[in-house]
Specification:
This protein has 374 residues and is α/β, with parallel strands linked by helices. The protein is built from 18 helices and eleven strands. It is globular. The two termini are 24 Å apart.
Length: 374
């Protein structure tokens, strides 16, 4: 197993009197990481994908739970979002069976969060696990080797099975995209037209790095704006995509309500449009580099527990900056991502003049260590 950054953090939270919730997309390594964490310790592993587990855990009490657990001091509930009343079950364990540590995972933020937030107020630690990160792979392969692999990662992504099974990336990604993208989403009542969902995903994949219009997307896929908004929200909560809003504070002609949409994993994006051509022959290399860097930066910030708000910036005159970060104490940073190492970049004076304290950086494959490792 490739060591995960979160492993040590979660280990330090065991038996602190709170439930541990681990979110993240299917197949990103949640179960594998927790099995490594608990190796050698007696624990009970239950999966919400199993009907009998859902039945047992959805209507229970402390006595029944103690019978199920036996002598185990740790109970690990996988895909907990599929268990009705899971929030109350976790509350019973946390409040009434205090010598037992409960750990629950979920691949749908929409379902699990909504079911546990109220019952577990003040009683939970929450963590987010992404597909493998640049930093985690550096720990395995070393910085130079992983940097040399960036072009491959931009094509095939960082899902553990993809990284550890070279030569089978395309087949596995297609299976992954067709199963994990839809399994949780299609189980929700809100997804009534899966064909529209597929059209929307393809449209978003083809507009990577560009500002999106929900009205235009609706026209493209033959739906209304409200359906597009709902599906994008659900795709975000299922960890398929994430939305980057526009930054707007001082400049009159700044775009205020714009949105860019990126994929948590470049491999999934490429599978959706069935394009696994090498970096050297692609016309979308700039957009892929941008997606790769912003997604990896998000992982790095989350794993280092850094509180940062992220945006893009654009004016009505099409002046733009790829990424704006608003750190604590008002610290502002602006980043431009360039795949070509010698590309010349000037940050718009409209931005630097109105935000004179901003720190500006150009990020290329030559200097990613400052952006992703520090």
């Amino acid at each position: 197993m490739i060591p995960r950054i979160l492993l040590k953090t979660i280990k330090g939270r065991l038996f602190k009197g709170k439930a541990i919730l681990l979110f993240g997309p299917r197949q990103c390594g949640k179960s594998t990481m927790l099995e490594t964490l608990l190796d050698g310790a007696p624990y009970l592993h239950l999966s919400g994908d199993n009907a009998d587990v859902r039945e047992i855990l959805s209507d229970t009490d402390a006595g029944k739970l103690r019978t199920i657990m036996g002598k185990n001091k740790i109970i690990f509930i996988d895909e907990a979002q599929r268990v009705p009343n899971i929030g109350l079950t976790l509350k019973i364990i946390t409040d009434q069976i205090r010598d037992v540590q409960v750990i629950a995972t979920g691949s749908s933020a929409f379902e699990l969060s909504s079911r546990v937030n109220e019952p577990l107020t003040g009683r939970k630690y929450e963590f987010m696990l992404y597909p493998l990160s640049f930093g985690e792979m550096v720990d395995v392969h070393g910085f130079l080797d992983e940097r040399r692999s960036i072009g491959i990662r931009m094509i095939y992504g960082y899902y553990p099975e993809i990284v550890t099974t070279p030569g089978e990336e395309r087949e596995l990604l297609r299976l992954l995209a067709n199963s994990y993208l839809y399994k949780d989403l299609l189980a929700l009542e809100q997804i009534k037209k899966p064909v529209l969902l597929e059209k929307l995903l393809r449209a978003l994949a083809l507009q990577l790095g560009s500002e999106v219009s929900y009205n235009e997307l609706a026209q493209t896929i033959g739906a209304n704006k409200q359906t597009v908004e709902k599906y994008i929200d659900l795709l975000e909560k299922a960890y398929v995509i994430f939305v980057l809003p526009a930054y707007s504070r001082n400049v009159r002609n700044e775009i205020k309500k714009g949105k860019k949409i990126y994929f948590f994993d470049c491999g999934i994006r490429n599978a959706i449009i069935n394009n696994f051509n090498p970096i050297e022959s692609r016309t979308d290399v700039g957009a892929l580099w941008e997606n790769y860097m912003i997604a990896e930066r998000m992982k790095h910030l989350r794993y280092t527990n850094t509180d940062v708000k992220q945006y893009f910036w654009r004016t009505t005159q099409q002046q733009e900056i790829d990424l704006i970060e608003e750190h604590e104490a008002g610290r502002l940073m602006a980043f431009e991502f360039k795949w070509a190492k010698n590309a010349k970049v000037r940050f718009p004076e409209t931005f630097t003049g109105n935000y004179p304290d901003v720190e500006t950086r150009i990020v290329s494959p030559d200097n990613i260590e400052d952006f992703l490792l520090k």
